[in-house]
Amino acid sequence: MPPPPRLHQLLVFFLVLLLLPLLSAIHMAPAASAGEGGVEEALLGLLQRVQSVALRALGARDFDPKLYVDLPLAADASAAAAAAALASLPRPAPSRGEMEAYISRYFAPAGSDLVAADPPDFEREPRGFLPKVESAAARAWALEVHALWKDLTRRVAPAVAVRPERHTLLSLPGRVVVPGSRFREVYYWDSYWVVRGLLVSKMYETAKDVTLNLVYLVEKYGFVPNGARSYYTNRSQPPLLSSMILDIYMATGDMVFVRRAFPSLLKEHSFWMSEVHNVAIMDNHGHVHNMSRYQAMWNKPRPESATIDEELASKLTSTAAKEQFYHQVASTAESGWDFSSRWMRDSTDMTTLTTSYIIPVDLNTFILKMEQDIAFFAKLIGESPISERFSEASKARYDAIESVLWNSDMDQWLDYWLPTDGNCQGIYLWKPNSQNRAIFASNFVPLWLNAQHSGLSCRRPLPVFVPMPGCIALFWEYLKLYGNIYQHIFHDLGVLF
């Protein structure tokens, strides 16, 4: 998901902050959704039908399918009445006016189930804010960006908790920071950079709220969903919750906060170690390594992009092929890199997405970091056996990353492709030609942990990122990378040089 304009400004701003020290120095998975179920699913099904009719009524130009699955029911409307009225609209398509009148009658505006909330720890110019920035112009710009927190902070309306069947938005206990624009809800890995920015802005309580909302979701679902919508509960996103908790602890020393969040880290780790995500692979020395992959619990069109997914799948002839494509699309969304040729057998054809058959460098690095963080927190709160267990787990994953993903010829880590001619079960034998030798920014995410191979010289020129021949235009391709990946890489360089 690309960051919308306001969040993108924040990401760029805090990327600049993180660069200052450097600059100054120089298979199919389960088909069922893990969704809300029952009446919430009934609303979602209705909204997807509204989405489909709206496309016919309004046309494809500037059509946003997500808008329709974000609509809450109007206060005086029922799902049954809305469904009946939808069925009675003229066919094959109502006019624009008829469609707009229908939506206005039965639904409240998208985003109306979030309400503005002033962050109590916001100060116009926080004490100790950017002490090394001397330029008046740079400081003025920084304060303008800092002021965006007031515009992006919300609370979920109380009505969502009282009548969840009338909303696709998930109820959350604390204040939220939304990306803005069409992204009206919390997203998992976006929240990591939100928290980092809030800490720079000295907004520690809001940072805790953002993080404890994710803890609440783990307690409810067993993992952090992609985002705080019922239609996102069939997949997660890159697991950075432990990093948020660690950053907040290092800034505040709040042990109560750590103890509150700690059980959810164990639960989230179990999710990523479950059969759905775990892959066993034997290296050349006969050692079996357990590694992780992205794999959504879904094989249907993504509700927020159903009309797009269905159009892409239309050239596939069998139901099984379409279900496999939908599964791979959702799994790619779980990666956060939706979309990139990194996940495609043919960079010109989106239907060749193969994400669940790939062992990704970045995901396994994030889980290694999670295991290190859990070991640290467990020791901090006096849980020595847990600390020892996760310390050993992190060492095992480090060895796995080095054995399976490291490429000494290229001095970098590479995604590993599993064969797609089976059901992705059992123990796979490592093959050197199964590493993806294309250069992606994700190849260097292990530097984020300073987990570089002893033979890697970070003073060598970094590889040139080149577009793949014939590659279709994708959000995560070549120069279209977003601030979060740049932050990982440039932060690494600032540490290592």
Automatic annotation (TrEMBL):
Keyword Signal attributed: yes
Signal peptide: 1-25
Pfam families, alphabetized: Trehalase
Single biological process term from Gene Ontology: trehalose catabolic process
Keywords carried by this UniProt record: Glycosidase, Hydrolase, Signal
Catalyzed reactions: alpha,alpha-trehalose + H2O = alpha-D-glucose + beta-D-glucose
Gene Ontology MF annotations: alpha,alpha-trehalase activity
Top EC class for this record: hydrolase
Alphabetized InterPro entries for the sequence: 6-hairpin_glycosidase_sf, 6hp_glycosidase-like_sf, Glyco_hydro_37
Listed EC numbers: 3.2.1.28
Gene3D superfamilies: 1.50.10.10
Family, per entry: Belongs to the glycosyl hydrolase 37 family.
Protein name (Swiss-Prot/TrEMBL): Trehalase
Organism taxonomic ancestry: Eukaryota, Viridiplantae, Streptophyta, Embryophyta, Tracheophyta
